[in-house]
Design goal:
Layout (H helix, E strand, L loop, with lengths): L3 E7 L3 H11 L9 E7 L7 H11 L3 E5 L5 H11 L4 E5 L3 E3 L3 H12 L3 E3 L2 E5 L5 H6 L22 E5 H5 L21 H11 L4 E3 L5 E5 L6 H21 L3 H29 L4 H19 L13
Parallel strand pairs: 1-2, 1-4, 2-3, 6-9, 7-10
Antiparallel strand pairs: 4-8, 5-10, 6-8
Amino acid sequence: MIRVSICICTFRRPELLRRLLQAVFSQEGFSDVLEVVVVDNDPAQSAAQVLTDFGHQYGNRLIALALQTPNISLARNAAIHAASADWIGMVDDDECPERDWLLNLFSAQQKYQADVVFAPVVPEYQNAVPGWIRRGAYFDRRRLLTGTQIRLQDARSGNVLVRKQTLTAIDTGSPDAGPFDPAYGQTGGEDSMLFRQLDFAGARMIWCDEAPVSEIVPVERATATWLLNRSFRTGQLYMRTELACIPLKQRRKRAVFLSIKAIVQAGAALLFSVLLMLFAPLKAFSWLRICVSQLGKLNHFRGRLFAAYGEK
């Protein structure tokens, strides 16, 4: 009996996918109760050869799907609907877990009777990544004590175990739709929206610090420009998801409050960035990113969102 379905969406990363599949199929204690669902979301089906190779080795324990419309929400939904297990593990195609990853996730789930278990994503830098990027820790994400109840700011789909019934209980208006909203499928933010819905529905969401995955940081992302663009987009998506979850009658008031707050925070962050520039440039850049994120929140109201998925 299949106990857990690992759902992976991939887009033009065949060699990283190969590395991930090797790690997933090597999980301790799950050799006979694990299936992997991979959705190739590249119109050119760049993952086809990798999936063929692993299909020959693992047979029906690998479910390979192709979705030619680049949309991360549709790809995630296709994977979830194809999964047969009661538990869904989600991991990104540029990540890689240790051999005890699933053991630790399920141990935390059982100990804390959780519906959703989140775990760390740790940066793995390519050799050519500049030293200032590493020292600045701009790709690091905060870690928590195991068992800590998760706040929405720490809820991401890159390394998570979730009860399938919890996902399918979300009302999408159609049994074949969701749980991820396709409207966020190219801009990102689909995972933020989903976990907001689960939080509102009362799902118990906790952290497991013993189940990290590593995430490749390619050299093309290790630039000031990429990081600032990422901060700007994060601000946009925060405002979009925050307002989308508020009743229409309250939305205008909330939007005004968040806008004023963003203006104040942007000004303060810019001031700190300037003051720190000469004697603490790494911290100055962190404050600059905070400033840019606040500007992204304000830019949301212009209605133009940057696509972050489906392009290479």
